[in-house]
């Protein structure tokens, strides 16, 4: 459903499902999203739009650089265990400011001030893993960070790892291209 919705978005054939007054009333008593979507908070990465979904379809969690702390992991677990979503999607994108800042920090040996520094430090492990490749192709760092975040969710959340192991849930890492509007799979666990 996500890939089909993205194809509609790319081609301009949007259906805008589940966005009317009747849909609002139908989901008001309870939500049953088909996926938890954990993505970057970049303003150009609005999940319901790029996947042509509507109210109640996606349980969306967003942070700069899709960095995952305890609040994020708790939110993802809530979407899976309480709301029953059988899929967790990690959505990264090209030209990510957090990945770019981490690349700069690694190359120049500096880091930004304030709480932005914490975001950059959480992305830095991904960048360090592909430092050489990313120096000429920053997309390598983006994709490594998508893989890293997907695997981090499985390492840190035994509840999600158990559900993936027994086939009740999948974790999918996707990369979004800003100019084209397309997504492609980078990694999948239990999918």
From TrEMBL:
GO terms for molecular function: carbonate dehydratase activity; zinc ion binding. Its EC number is 4.2.1.1. InterPro entries: Carbonic_anhydrase (IPR001765), Carbonic_anhydrase_CS (IPR015892), Carbonic_anhydrase_sf (IPR036874). Its cofactor is Zn(2+). Binds 1 zinc ion per subunit. It comes from the Bacteria. It catalyses: hydrogencarbonate + H(+) = CO2 + H2O. The keyword Zinc applies. Zn(2+) binds at residues 40, 42, 93, 96. GO terms for biological process: carbon utilization. Keywords: Lyase, Metal-binding, Zinc. Pfam families: Pro_CA. Catalyzes the reversible hydration of carbon dioxide to form bicarbonate. Belongs to the beta-class carbonic anhydrase family. This is carbonic anhydrase. It comes from Natronosporangium hydrolyticum.
